[in-house]
Specification:
single chain, eight-stranded antiparallel beta sheet, alpha+beta, globular, DNA-binding, 11% helix, 207 residues
Length: 207
DNA sequence: TGCCTGATTGCCT
DNA sequence: GGCAATCAGGCAA
């Protein structure tokens, strides 16, 4: 193995606020390969982002922001680089990153991770030993990372939940990305707003 | 392997 | 009152 898990991610690899201001679709694409890290009380977990979806505002009927700001989606209108977390189907949480100025309401849904660190803890939280099923879906990765609903609105730049710049993958720093339609929606389903790390075995569905 | 269904809760119409 | 950016398990083939 490498260093201790906790030494692999440092404050100088954290993606800066500027990163989230480059346009939602671009950010969704650029987040492929980035690493989500959470230092929880139970321990540290981390995963490489292998699947994202962009959710826009006025032009996008699938977006929670489409009908304006409400108590539920309030965090989606917060500052870029902050978390937007919501309950779906009464039992699962989905984790998003805000990618537009305050009041705009755009975000990127993180749909799948490749587990990198804290895998034993993920197994316990997910109640499975199958690494391919630890983080291969938006509800699953929230469970595996131990992310809680109260974290909606927190900064991902300073805090115990952070996003880090893409690192080398099998010796390469470039990522081949597959683009497709978003999953689990009906309105706006035809738009090519889903991004996957090509060839990854940790996706929520095939490319 | 793949389709189908139940679980479960807050928020919007 | 209905439904939602989901998931696991059951059953058929």
């Amino acid at each position: 193995m490498r260093k201790r898990d906790s030494e692999q991610f440092t404050s100088d690899t954290i993606l800066p606020a500027d990163f989230y201001c480059g346009g939602t679709v671009s950010v969704a694409r650029a987040l492929i390969g980035a690493c989500l890290v959470y230092n929880s009380k139970e321990g540290m977990t981390a995963g490489r982002i292998v699947e994202t979806e962009a959710y826009l505002y006025k032009t996008d009927p699938a977006s929670h922001a489409y009908r304006g700001q409400t108590p539920r989606n309030g965090a989606m209108f917060g500052p870029p680089g902050h978390a937007y977390i919501y309950l779906i189907y009464g039992m699962y949480l989905c984790f998003n990153v805000v990618t537009a100025p305050v009041g705009d309401g755009q975000a990127v849904l993180i749909r799948a991770l490749e587990p990198l660190a804290g895998i034993e803890l993920m197994k316990v939280r997910r109640k499975t030993d199958d690494i391919g099923r630890l983080c291969s879906g938006p509800g699953k990765l929230v469970q595996a990372m131990g992310i809680r609903r109260e974290q909606s609105g927190v900064s991902l730049i300073a805090g115990d939940l952070t996003l880090h710049a893409p690192r080398a993958y099998r010796g390469a720093t470039e990522f081949k990305i597959a683009v497709s339609r978003r999953i689990g929606i009906t309105a706006g389903a035809e738009l090519p707003l889903r991004f996957c790390l090509k060839g990854s075995r940790y996706l929520s569905a095939k490319e």
